[in-house]
Amino acid sequence: MSEFSLMAIALGGAFGSVSRFLVAQEMGRRFGDFLPYGTFAVNVIGSLALGWLATIFIDRSEINSALRLGIVVGFLGAFTTFSTFSLESVQLLLSGSITRSLLNIAANTVVCIGMCYLGIQIARLS
Are 74 and 1 within 8 A, CB to CB? Predict the structure, then answer.
């Protein structure tokens, strides 16, 4: 892997993590804290984007590999927060909020898989 690819991943990761933080903060401000809405939002957006971009990148080999890595591994890797989703779901469970924990797990799982599929379908229309 080239140094340029590593720098693209690092730069993408910086932008992805800041974007994740800002989206999570805004979602919490708008919708409160009944569920971790910020994590849900970035997982939905990231799943859609990854499905779409992965399909676009497969079909367009002329796109620079460092750019692909910077966006997919760097930006989306830092932007999506499955590990945070896992921790928040366990924390809800451990706090006795079993229903909220299960609702969070079901919503993130079903909607994000659906959005990834939708991203693939949108890319195939291009």
Answer: no
Q: What is the pLDDT of residues 36-55, one digit of tens each?
A: 999 999 999 999 999 899 88
The amino acid occupying position 23 is: V
Exposure string over 64-80, b if 16+ CB within 10 A, otherwise e: eebebbbbbbbbbbbbb
- Asked whether 21 and 38 are in contact (CB, 8 A), the reply is no
Q: What is the mean pLDDT of residues 71-96?
A: 91
* pLDDT over threshold 90, residue 10: yes
Question: How far is the C-alpha of 80 from the C-alpha of 44, rounded, in Å?
Answer: 8
CA 118 to chain centre: 14
**Spatial distance between the Cα atoms of 119 and 100, rounded to a whole number of angstroms:** 28
